[in-house]
Amino acid sequence: MRLSTKTRYGVRLMLALATKYGNGPVLLKAIAKEEDISEKYLGQIILSLKSYDLVKSFRGARGGYSLSRQPSEISLKEIVEVLEGDLSLVECVKTADSCKRMPRCVTQEIWCKLSSTISSTLESFTLLDMVIMYQKKQQPVAEHMYFI
After folding, report:
1. Rounded CA gap, 93 and 42, in Å?
2. Is 18 exposed, middle or buried (0-12, 13-18, 19+ CB in 10 A)?
3. CB 70: neighbour CB atoms within 10 A?
4. 114 inside domain
5. Which of 20, 31, 45, 69 is the most exposed place for a label (fewest CB within 10 A)?
6. Domain CATH number, residue 66
7. Residue 67, domain extent
8. Residues 49, 18: contact at Cβ < 8 Å?
9. pLDDT tens digits, residue range 17-49?
């Protein structure tokens, strides 16, 4: 199982908006340059995020994009579901009666548990959590000084 490039770039886009939250709209061009992602590709991604009300757009000279809610209110799960679709690993996780083998199937229980773990892990991270992680990674590593 792999996340698509669309989802990985979408998460980076949302993180970039979250790090600038409260400072007004951000131009997609600036994020594209900062993240080294095609502006055209980000334009396609942001349409999906906008249609699910995760971002809002502003027109005009000071236009751009911003999060529609505070970073603490948007989970990583929401973003991934918008861009990837349903997170169930197999159909029978979502709809138990979708498979005639269900009464004797051994793996369905495992797929349910794995799908649940993925979902709860993604739900446990908000954009604010990611901003904090990002800021920690931006701090310079202190070098140790030794004195004799």
Report:
1. 32
2. buried
3. 13
4. no
5. 69
6. 1.10.10.10
7. 5-86+127-138
8. no
9. 999 999 999 999 999 999 999 999 999 999 999
